[in-house]
Amino acid sequence: MKRIDIPTAADLVSAAREFAKLLGSRRHIAFYGDMGAGKTTFIRTLVRELGVGVDVAANSPSFSLVNEYETPSGERIYHFDFYRLDSVEEAFDIGVEEYFDSGALCLMEWPERIIPILPEDTVTVKITVNDDDSRTLTISEC
């Protein structure tokens, strides 16, 4: 288990850089946290740090369920927001297994909606809001 502390919003970039170094060849990342914990904000920062342009990375997948980004080197990144799903079947309807099998980096918000079909190698990231409004990322493998 690894921890990354994010004392203030100004520390997001350094936290995203540190997290990116931890990724290695891992492709499936599940972000857990309460509403407003900063999942989308952290993922946007991470995607930017991975080379996706600021204007492209500013989109949220809340309405489309998945956004696709591309790094300058051509690597695909998929950002999912499963909040609006009512069943695992709805995830299958959007072709989630094809995304998971693509070899691309898959960053998932609200993965608790699809736990039965998460890939075995999924890395779990819990974002906690601390009493002082700082954030802590707790990273572990499933």
Between the first and last Cα atoms, what is the distance in angstroms? Answer: 11 Å
Low-confidence stretches: none
| Largest sheet geometry | 7 strands, mixed
Give, in spatial order, the strands making up the sheet with the most strands. Answer: 1-7-6-2-5-4-3
Q: What Rg is obtained from the alpha carbons, in whole angstroms?
A: 14 Å
**Overall number of strands:** 7
Into which percent range does the helicity of residues fall?
Answer: 25-40%
Shape: globular
The average pLDDT score comes to 92
Number of helices: 5
* Structural class by secondary-structure content: alpha/beta
Please indicate the percent range of residues in DSSP E strands (runs of 2 or more).
25-35%
Order of helices and strands: EHEHHEEHHEEE
Structure, briefly:
The protein is an alpha/beta fold. The chain is built from five helices and seven strands.
Describe the model.
The termini are close together. Helix content is 27%, strand content 28%. Strands 1-7-6-2-5-4-3 form a seven-stranded mixed sheet, covered by helices on one side. The mean pLDDT is 92. The longest helix is centred in the first third of the chain and has 12 residues, at 12-23. α1 (12-23) packs across α2 (39-49). A hairpin with a 5-residue loop joins β6 (123-129) and β7. The chain is globular, with a radius of gyration of 14 Å. It is an alpha/beta fold. The protein is built from five helices and seven strands. It has helices at residues 12-23, 39-49, 54-57, 88-93, 96-100; strands at residues 2-6, 28-32, 66-70, 76-81, 105-109, 123-129, 135-141.
